[in-house]
Amino acid sequence: MSKEKRKKVKRKKSKLVYVAVAIMLISGGALAYYGYDYFLYWQDGRSAQANTDIVRNMFGEQMDDIGQLISILPHVEGEQEPEMMRIAFDTSPLDEARELTGNPDIIGFLYVADTNITNVILHGEDNYFYLHRDMFGNRNSNGSVFMDFRNAPDFTDRNTILYGHNMNNGTMFHNVRFYMQQEFFEAHPLIKVVIEDYLFVYEIFSAFSTRVDRAYRMDFDYIQVLFEDDEEFAGLVEEMMRRSLHETDVVASGDDRILVLSTCTNVNRNTRYVVAARLAQVFLIDNESESAAEYY
Q: What is the phi/psi pair of residue 106, to 5°?
């Protein structure tokens, strides 16, 4: 081999070495980046579950006591106005949650027995802030459970919407997906919400999935807050009933106040799981009584 050919071979080998090193560096960098990204995702999940556990510890015992009491109270049927009753908390859990987090955006507590759908409810100035922030206001990919910013924080609107991510780690609204299954739907019929002065008990009457296009237009606009008239709202409730995957004895109408839980399906980015419930019972909260579950 001539001297010139040896030089060409040497240059070619050098180039191959440089390319190999570059590929290794790029691959290593990408691996490190995605590894770190996964670590942050895992860390966010642990933090979100820890926050959920904190909330459950604050509210859980009282809610279990109240749940037992509610189970023996008369059931409200049909289109009757919710019966006003009084129930006692030994402390104000919402004040405790706000003091712990330093966050005045906490407006309530959401509770579904024996599920991870148990969390404080946030109410921000828009529907984006709490998509990726926890109850402390810190950045977290799991986000929070939050109310549509257009809704009144006292749950007096005809249609109140709560959002949460469907996280594969089980946090936020991951358990909402199970309402698409008949057995889970039947085993978890009630949603309880605690706000400043009231405990609301909602009966679930519908669970379904729906599509959202790229412009976030829906084939069924279940997140309406404002309605032109009674007929428009009644039509929304009727359509919720019609779309339900399961049969139920709970009947909702245009005379009811509705609570909606909404989350992504994770099947594709353009579909949502929806659970809808009607307000069935209202309890006035008395924080001055010594009993944590006293009924008047």
A: -75, 115
Phi, psi dihedral angles at 295 (to 5 degrees):
-115, 130
Q: Does residue 123 lie in a domain region?
A: yes
- Residue 61: how many other CB atoms lie within 10 Å: 13
Q: What is the mean pLDDT of residues 104-119?
A: 89
pLDDT in tens, 210-245: 887 655 566 788 989 999 999 999 999 999 999 999
Nearest of 40, 166, 162 to residue 110 by alpha carbon: 162
Instruction: Report if residue 7 sits inside a domain.
Output: no
Contact 137, 103 (CB under 8 A): yes
β-partners of residue 120 are 109
Integer Cα distance of 295 and 285 in angstroms = 10
The residue segments making up the domain with residue 179 are 37-286
CATH code of residue 53: 2.40.260.10
Nearest to 142 by CA among 158, 164, 120: 164
Q: What is the end-to-end Cα distance of the chain in Å, rounded?
A: 104
Q: Do the domain assignments include residue 274?
A: yes
User: 3-class DSSP state for residue 228?
Assistant: coil
Residues 275, 21: Cα–Cα separation, whole Å = 53
DSSP state of 78: T
Quote the CA–CA distance of 64 and 96 in Å, as a whole number: 18
Q: How far apart are CA 252 and CA 261, in angstroms?
A: 16
User: Judging by DSSP bridges, how do beta strands 106-111 and 190-194 pair with one another?
Assistant: antiparallel
> Mean pLDDT, to the nearest integer, of 274-290?
80
Look up the pTM and report it: 0.78
Whether 171 maps to a domain, the answer reads: yes
In sign, the C-alpha dihedral spanning 37, 41, 44, 46 is negative
